Amino acid sequence: MAQNDTAAPSTQTSYAPSTAFAEQANATAALYDEAEADRLAFWAEQANRLAWETPFTEVLDWSEAPVAKWFADGKLNVAYNCVDRHVEAGNGDRVAIHWVGEPVDHHRTITYAELKDEVSKAANALTDLGLVAGDRVAIYMPMVPEAIVAMLACARLGVLHSVVFAGFSASALKARIADAEAKLVITTDGQYRRGKAASLKDAVDEAVEGDGGQSIQHVLVVKRTGIDVGWTKGRDLWWHDVVDAASTEHTPKAFDAEHPLFLLYTSGTTGKPKGIMHTTGGYLTQSSYTHFNVFDVKPETDVYWCTADIGWVTGHTYIVYGPLSNGVTQVVYEGTPTSPTEHRHFEIIEKYGVTIYYTAPTLVRTFMKLGRQIAAEHDLSSLRLLGSVGEPINPEAWRWYRTVFGADQTPIVDTWWQTETGSIMISPLPGVTATKPGSAMTPLPGISAVIVDDDGNRLEPGTDHGEQVSGYLVLDKPWPSMLRGIWGDPERFKETYWSRFAEQGWYFAGDGARYGSDGEIWVLGRIDDVMNISGHRISTAEVESALVGHSGVAEAAVVGATDEQTGQAICAFVILKASAQGGAENMVEELRAEVAKEISPIAKPREIHVVPELPKTRSGKIMRRLLRDVAEGRELGDTSTLVDPSVFEAIRAGK
Ligand code: PRX
To answer: Beta strands of 148-254 (E only): which ranges?
Structure first.
């Protein structure tokens, strides 16, 4: 790290918004009072920021908890809300998307009127392919405008999209297609990876062939790179043949507020990813409301940029549905932050005059490591608000972000939420909250979250220093964009989220947290078997099952160990079968490759230790806590419940 970055710019503990920011902010403190006075009336008001074809009369029906119904007798069309209504309001010429391709000379500007035409054409094309409301479409694409068009076209038709991150492997895609029984995959021929075109279509071919791919009728392919692709006649279709030829006239049909909008697969505590299901009215209400108030967007003047990928929930809510429902202008970037140079993000901010920048702590730490001189070469004065998401942001990175990106002036919104919550739940309001670096602060107006102990008793506010008592972060009241279930598995939905505090009827988020001295929330990270690698959610069980899938592995245990750069890093401990013992050295590389192939390169373990035994309790449970101690080089915690405490000598010897 550069010398000047090691000295923290300040040890200030709380940062209040400037008067100038507060005076122009969309959200004032009155929002908390309004929500407090009448929560359901408050949500009705937020829902009415949208255009409803049939107004709702009931706000919330919680009688079938934990499956909520919000605004159930209302009808609306999500794509109409995100596109058409802005054109009808006279804003068709406003830029919706400044698309910046990975190769530096690729870019495109798309206005709301153009977006409406593109979405209408795609909706007509999907209809011609036989898709009807309720069907599922897998979208496996890099960050190209057609990916957003495809999502909106599905939404327009009431077809559920299941976006699969283009960094996932063929086998991960296959499992998701099979679980959702998708009829169509939309993909590209290839994608740019640090200047080189790499195939994507090959992975789709592999995923849809054979068992599990039977539901697929067509593969719709956007030509992005021009590289050669295999082609199955009748099944495979070019986007430019099918979509470009379709009519720009398409009348959207309104759907019930509880009609499903999309599935998004995320890692749980077992090896099988869960298809998180979101529905129409509540999801769009909260996405739009949070985007407007947390990011303080002024559609006429702001240039907003969320650096996430549409393959994750942040891309769904804060690239597609939130910003577009609010009619803002945004930057969408196809590539990685360091390609072709580390200046890329700063150049984009400068060129497009980005005013609001929303990214992940891991990227802030990457920039920090590169040193502030890179940022200093660019004019970042257009920035007026910064956001963070995906993992706790360490105070040092928070302060660096504010100083270097934000000229020590811009508010930072540290936003806590999950795939399951659909949109932001805990976050500062930028014109109201005096923020503490590292804390997501308090639940947004209309949202309720509490930290409780094992028995469900609410913890007391803590102190900023000294012993901290931590507990479980729970959401004790339903919220509009909450998940409505796990695709095809209602039991798992109840078991996963609603069983820990079943008596109280609370949702357990899987995170540990503590209160600070002002009652603000400090999220400490997952306390289940879910790891957070650079903000990507990966389960220990998924990686373990990829490892034991290899013929040379007898047993595997995986833990997330603290990593300065990526938040957590994957550490695996494996016992090899006798037949594979000879080649332990080669096996490690082979196993890392196996995990990349089975899941994704992002799930490759940082370390794999070949060990003779794993630490187990008498009931046969692997003690991950102790493995984490080993991986992080700490003194071992309590080993009294182990069958054989001496196992650690052997593990350490192998490390
Ligand atoms: O552990 C929390 C962490 O990310 C988890 C949710 O992951 P995912 O569903 O992939 O969604 C990520 C983007 C919303 C949470 O359970 N997390 C997310 N944001 C924060 C966070 N932890 C601390 N602070 C945050 N701001």
So the answer is: 160-163, 184-188, 190-193, 196-199, 218-222, 236-238
Query: Could you tell me the distance, in angstroms and rounded to a whole number, from the CA of residue 538 to the centre of ligand 1?
Result: 12
Task: For tokens 């870019």, name the residue.
Answer: 107
- Residue 327 banded pLDDT, cuts 50, 70, 90: very high
Q: What is the mean pLDDT of the chain?
A: 93
Closest CA to 352 of 165, 99, 544: 99
Q: Give, in order, the Cα–Cα distances in Å from 579 to each of 253, 546, 586.
A: 61, 19, 14
Outline where 229-310 has alpha helix (H): 239-242, 281-294
Q: Is 195 annotated as a binding residue?
A: yes
CA torsion 302→307→310→314, rounded to 10°?
Answer: -80
Helix (H) or strand (E) holding 220: strand 218-222
| The predicted structure's pLDDT at residue 292 | 99
Q: What pLDDT does residue 91 have?
A: 98
423: CA distance to ligand 1 center in Å?
Answer: 11
Q: Are 533 and 311 in contact (CB under 8 A)?
A: no
Q: Which atom of ligand 1 is nearest to the CA of 510?
A: 16
Domain boundaries, the chain: 448-527, 534-654
| Ligand 1 in reach of 509 Cβ (< 6 A) | yes
- CA-closest residue to ligand 1 atom 7: 418
The protein residue whose alpha carbon is closest to atom 12 in ligand 1 is 390
Candidates 261, 273, 260; CA nearest to 173 is 273
The owner of tokens 């209504």 is 85
How does pLDDT run across 421-455, given as a tens digit for each residue? 999 999 999 999 999 999 999 999 999 999 999 99
Share of the chain above pLDDT 70, in %: 96
For the segment 252-296, what is each residue's pLDDT rounded down to a tens digit?
A: 999 999 999 999 999 877 778 899 999 999 999 999 999 999 999
Angle between helices 30-37 and 39-47 (to 10 degrees): 120
Query: Is 553 among the annotated ligand-binding positions?
Result: yes
Q: How many Cα neighbours within 13 Å face the side chain of 245?
A: 9
pTM for the full predicted model: 0.94
DSSP code per residue over 341-403? -TTHHHHHHHHHT--EEEE-HHHHHHHHHH-HHHHHTS--TT--EEEEESSPPPHHHHHHIII
The CATH number that domain 534-654 falls under is: 3.30.300.30
Q: Is 360 in the pocket of ligand 1 (CB under 6 A)?
A: no
| pLDDT range class, residue 655, cuts 50, 70, 90 | low
Tokens of 425: 């739940």
For the segment 487-530, what is each residue's pLDDT rounded down to a tens digit?
Answer: 999 999 999 999 999 999 999 999 999 999 999 999 999 988 89
Give the nearest ligand 1 atom to 526 CA: 1
Pick from 622, 561, 550, 630: which is nearest to 588 by CA?
A: 550
For residue 255, what are its two tokens?
């759907």
What one-character DSSP code corresponds to residue 259? S
Classify domain 448-527 by CATH number: 2.30.38.10
CA-440 nearest atom, ligand 1: 26
Are residues 434 and 412 in contact, defined by beta-carbon separation less than 8 angstroms? no
Judge if 448-527 and 534-654 fold alike in CATH terms: no
